[in-house]
Amino acid sequence: MQFDTKIAVVIRTDLEPWQQLNVAAFLAGGISASFPECVGEPYEDGSGTKYLSLVGQPILIYGADRAALTRALERALARGVKPAVYTEEMFKTTHDAANRTAVKAVARADLNLVGLAMRAERKVIDKVVDGLKFHS
Question: What distance in Å separates the CA atoms of residue 7 and residue 89, rounded to the nearest whole number?
């Protein structure tokens, strides 16, 4: 199935594995919350056990260093894409309000980004992540 939109998550490659997974999970949650139309139907197994819905389209995960993350953020904003962000300072917080406070305390140019997620038309996302490689 071909989708008109693309979901991309960009994760800083120098993080510990648990941090990379944590960032990806939070950012995917941001996409789900902001674009409920991308969430599929609930699952059910052959025994009738019901499960939660998942995002109904592929999520492409890219790796980047800090400079490439900043470049991707600027490219997204220049194209009218509103991304989800995760900064290094958010690892030190324990709840959503503290996360927002940590981001608000820093000017965009000084954000210590560890991850971004965005959903937009395929061609737009392709331009935002141009030059990045899939996370390995």
Answer: 24
- In angstroms, the CA 109 to CA 97 distance is 22
Element (H, E) at 72: helix 66-78
Q: Average pLDDT in the 96-105 region?
A: 96
**Residue-level pLDDT at 2:** 81
Residues in contact with 136: Cβ distance below 8 Å, sequence separation at least 6, in sequence order:
63
| 29-35 contacts at long range (C-beta below 8 A, 24 or more positions apart) | 30/84, 30/117, 31/7, 31/55, 31/59, 31/84, 31/117, 31/118, 31/119, 34/82, 34/84, 34/119, 35/119
